[in-house]
Batch of 3 targets.
Target 1
Amino acid sequence: MPDTSNSPVNRKSSVTEQTLSLNDRQIRYTAFAEWQTLFENEKPVAEMFHVAYLAEVEQATLRPLTFVFNGGPGAASAYLHMGALGPKRVCFGSDGSLPKPPVRVVDNVESWLSFTDLVFIDPIGTGFSRSLPQDDKDTKQSEKANSGEADKPKETEFWEVERDLKALGEFIGRFLSGHQRWLSPDLYCRRKLWRLSGC
């Protein structure tokens, strides 16, 4: 893996300590909102955004770790994050409808954090995840723009099945290394249409 210490991209991350209040107990956890730089041929090509919730336990490696993402392309993890599985959720109406703004955020007593740590991933081109400018490609795109040729958004290459899998695999590997969680049982959950699948 490339050395990321001198990466040209250095976005500020956020790390906070939180508590989830359930009916029978409280769960103290750390919330991370960060970008992970992805590489190709030793060059940074994209930034993948994620929000992770890691419970405070004595042996983190024994606790399951679930990576959650939408079945895109074009869909961030926000619906699963703030609507279903995260430790906080939007307060919906009694019939499940969205209330008028401003909406309230409340503890989610049905959060999966009660039995697994959670990592919500925005695939490239969704949420806050983006591809990075490439000198040679940007020059060609500028030439195309000047000549009137239409060009696809740069993120579309990450919407191909193999490239999407490669990006997610690289992100997961770096996350497991960065948080020393290679020994944790890993689970993967993606949303397809309006139901949960692949869990």
Target 2
Amino acid sequence: MSHAYENDAYENDAYDDDRSNELSEELGEELGDEPNDGQDYGESYGHDFGAGYGQGADGRGGPERTFAALPPAQGRGFASSWWGQAWLKALEDTALDGEQLKKGRRLAREGKVGAVSVRPGRITAVVQDRDATPYRSDVLLQQLSGDEWDRFLDMAVDRAGHIAALLDREMPPHLVEDAAAAGVDLLPGIGDLEPECGCEAWDHCPHSGALCYQVARLLDQDPFVLLLMRGRDERRLLDELQVRSAARAVRDARGEPPDTADRGGIGARRGVSAEEAYAAGGIVPPLPEPPPVPAEPGLPPSLDTETDPAPGLDPAALELLATDSAARAHRMLLDALAPGHEHQPLPVELTPDQDAVRLAAETAPESWIATRLATGSGRRRAELDAAVRAWRYGGSAALAVLEDEWDPDPESLARAQAQLAGAWEEGERPQLRAGRARWTVTGADVQLRYGRDGRWWPYRKDRGRWIPAGPADDDPAGALAASRADA
């Protein structure tokens, strides 16, 4: 038992961030350089935990999910779900020194656990000690064998409610009980959570304990995290369930007994022939109603990992693009479900320069990213700021009014002049100086611009530059009033 964690070290609130960052980079390189070819983590550190740890049943490295560091958990428990509490019970029953776990809880509550990597058979994070020393900590969990997965999948297909519960991010007790009856232990028990930590403690230390407490919070939100540790990611699991369900529907329709050779395990699965799938068309139940649209876009994956990015790849910029993509997908889904959507014209595809303005307008990026967008779109930073202002008032149409000068044809010019003549009472019209499709008020820093769509756009001069002053208006007098109000 390691007793290297003295109480006074845990009461010292002075942290050396520079030292922590340097060591985190070193640890990140170690994580990034580690081969993902199924080599056992314990084996690479001089320990042998058996082939089930850190590799798939076929001996290859499996999928990985990385979760951003969670905020401090002050004033709340680490697990509210019963399966999250079962995870913590396995930890607390396994650890030999409760004092080490107490210190681990304190580290977790203070937000000292970095991004958590979840892979088949293993969870990994860099945990910062209270003296600012970072340690890489791993916790290993035995994966299910191929036969165990077959039994679990057969059991889940037999009981449709189990699949529905997982899709709702729940793990009801009867699912775990039915799995146990089939000889499959989903939740860990005493001794199942094997620690490995850079502090070289041989039992659970504060770092591995803190990692487990944070993972309990992840399990609360998504039980598929546990199934990934057991060896199957969500997509693969659902695909195998779908194949088994279709095959079973065909067999049931023909009155055939279950065929063990058609089980959905990788290597044993033959799939469903086209003939069988067509024959099952009138048997397979209809698709369920689509789920409700989320109230807001989902969170993009965090790229804040210990692995250094590839040369030329900027994680912060990539996260911005992922966030923007999620917001656009959410907006497109809402538009697609709106009544009458099928009668709406297709949106005009933006040019790269227009999309740079849209991205800056809708995401409010950090200054250095905005500067890169300006440079990439051939604008100075002040020009991008004006373009963003225009976009927020009217999208691509407003941007065109800002950046494109045009000469109205005689018919458009006559229509514009007629609107100007009728916009004010006699004697109230301001003196305007015309220039192409722009009318500037004499002696004032306000301007009207006539768009190709026949609307009027207010502008005002700011530090020698004309900038948008409001949204478009069909009435030139209303647009001019907006430009004066903005000034």
Target 3
Amino acid sequence: MADVTTETTTDTAPTVTPSEPSGVLDLRPPKESVRAELCRLGLEFSSADGTAESWRDYQRGVLATFDDAATSVTLTDVKTNLGRTLTLDELKAVTRIDTMTAAD
């Protein structure tokens, strides 16, 4: 008979340590980021494929895409497929996004 060695391991979940001594885990994006600006404009994360992220505002019909560098973002009206690419500084100046679906 062959010798059989059985090894038992236990998987443990990694411990999450808050970055603040207050015990608060802040999951918000950095203030100076494309993600923070998209949140400010009402978009929400939709998907990521390893090289790019997509964010959407389903009520307004807006799709935002950006690559891993996140130095610029392309905002597109999903009904017309018209879009514009903006830098982070340009995105900060946007106060509203009008589309064929929604224009205030």
